[in-house]
Each structure stands twice: as C-alpha cells, then as structure tokens.
Amino acid sequence: MMIQIDSLHILIVLMKNVLVQQLVIYETSASELDIIRDISRTFPSHVFFQQRHGPGQRSLYNVLKAYSVYDRDVGYVQGMGFLAGLLLLYMSEEDAFWLMVALLKGAVHAPMEGLYLVNFLSSDKNFCPMPLLGNNGASYDLSSPGAVVGLPLVQQYLFQFENLVREQLPRLGEHFTQEVISPSMYASQWFITVFSYSFPFHLALRIWDVFLYEGVKIVFQVGLALLKYCHDDLTKLPFEKLIHALRNFPEDAMNPDTLLPMAYSIKVSKRLEELKLEYEKQNGKQAQSGESSGKQK
C-alpha cells in the first residue's frame, strides 16, 4: 500500500512538471514580449538574475510565461516578476509556478490575483507610481495621465491603508491631506510585490516569511511601522520632498530587527475587516449609481 501511495505521489509530481513544461513550450502568450522585456528589471542586482539569458532569467521567463498561459484572465503584469523571482531563489521552476497559483488563487490566504488584474483606463495619473504592463500586451506608464486603474485589490488595500494612517497617525494623516498625498503615490508597489520591488533584500525576505504564514496583514503593519518610525521627519516636509522620502526610506528605518517588532505591535486585523466591508459597501453603491445612470440614458 505504501509503495502504491509513493508511486501515485511521484506520478502527480511528474504530471505537474510536464504541465508547466507544456505551457512554456507549446502554448503562446500575448504577454511574451512584455515578460522578456521585464526580466532584466527583476532583482537586477541579485547574482542569480544578472546574467543575460542565464539560468535565473530563463527560469523566471518560464514561470511567468507558464502562469500567463495558465491564467489568461490575469496574464502577466509587471510586478509579478518579483513574486516569481523571489520564489525561484528557494525552489524549482515547477514549485515556484504552483506556489504562484496557490497564492494568486487563494489556496494559502486571501487570493492575490486582484493585485494584478488590469481592467481599464482612467485619467487619474496618481493611481500607482509603478509602471505596469497590461495582460493584453500593451504597455501602460502609470506616471502619465492615462493611468491603469484596474488592480481592484490594490485599490481596496490603498483605501484601507489610507484610513489606518489617518486613525493611527493622525498628525501625519492630516499633513498628507494638506500636501495632497495619497497612498497610491507611494504604497502601491508595497502590496503588488510585498516589499520586494525596492526594499533591501534581507528585509523583504523577513517580511515574506511572515506574509506566507499570516497573509497580507503584515504589509499593512510594516507600512504603518515605516511611517511611524519616520513620523516626525515626514510631517515637516513639503510635497516634493515628502514624495521622495516616502519612496526612499533611510537605511536605519529598514533595519528588520527594529522595524518588524514595531510592525508586530500594530494591531490591524479587526479594523482591516471593517474597512473592507466599508469599501465594498461604497463601491457597491457606486456601481448601482452607474447602472442607474446608464438606464436613464
């Protein structure tokens, strides 16, 4: 019986590996050129990904292409490379692919796929400071007036984060209001890449350890801890210097031995759930209002 179970397990593993290879070799992806273009931008200072067309870049391409074919609704969006790249440092292509599936589809925690769904365009140029590539192969520069405002889960998280800042750091929240600073100007990539885009690698790994165990709550906690640590300096800065500071935190603020204990002490679970319901209620009303306007026309 044990031999049969072991044989079945081996067969399942082999089938999964073959599926990933088939997705890469035999299927076509509308995002293929976007993936190729972005590979060199993913962890560019890490030795595993530095060699052009080297093993790291090839593995990253394989995982991202396989996922873009496996889930064509999401496809590929810039930012997913940091997720895949980090996983590839610790596991095989096949394991990285299936863990991406688990994370995006919600087998581990709340589904992450809403972070990468690019749906439509808007004139809101401040939605997200990080350039993204659409899953239809088009390139969207989010620093331009025609910004992509799909990413429904990012919008929800930014709504929750903005309210948490106002409640837990009221003086800084008021300063942000006066300077017309919204979380979309600095925090989008925190959620899209779980701090792996521009933060020190040793800090990102520590955050990811907690993220894989507890879910997205740690992203809110670390974000609030960063603002709390730099609170007094941030409240003195005008708009341009404030934006720069929010995208370039000082080295001492990103010491994991200081930052993470501060983050753990910030309680957000209950309030996050309340704000999620509030966001869904507001957006439900907006959707109904839009439908009513359409019917009147």
The H-and-E topology, N to C, reads as HHHHHHEEEEHHHHHHHHH
Largest sheet: 2 strands, antiparallel
The percentage of residues in β strands lies in under 5%
Structural class, by secondary structure, is mainly alpha
Residue-averaged pLDDT:
82
The CATH class of the largest domain is identified as Mainly Alpha
CATH superfamily of the largest domain: Ypt/Rab-GAP domain of gyp1p, domain 3
Low-confidence stretches: 1-15, 120-148, 289-297
Number of domains: 2
Number of helical elements: 15
CATH hierarchy: architecture of the largest domain: Orthogonal Bundle
Helical content class:
55-70%
Please identify the oligomeric state. Answer: single chain
Per DSSP E runs of 2 or more residues, the count of β-strands stands at 4
How do the strands line up in the largest sheet? 1-4
**Cα shape:** globular
Instruction: Examine the coordinates and then state which fold CATH places here, giving the name of the CATH topology of the largest domain.
Output: Cyclin A, domain 1
Domain Rab-GAP TBC: 1-215
Protein name: Ecotropic viral integration site 5 protein-like
Keywords: GTPase activation, Signal
GO molecular function: GTPase activator activity
Account of the protein in words:
The structure is a single chain. Helices cover 62% and strands 3% of the residues. With 297 residues, it is mainly alpha-helical. It folds into two domains: 2-115, Orthogonal Bundle (Helicase, Ruva Protein, domain 3); 151-287, Ypt/Rab-GAP domain of gyp1p, domain 3 (Cyclin A, domain 1, Orthogonal Bundle). Helix 11 crosses helix 14 (256-264). The longest helix has 28 residues, at 269-296. The relative contact order is 0.08. The model is unreliable at 1-15, 120-148 and 289-297 (pLDDT under 50). It comes from Vitis vinifera (Grape). Residues 1-215 form the Rab-GAP TBC domain.
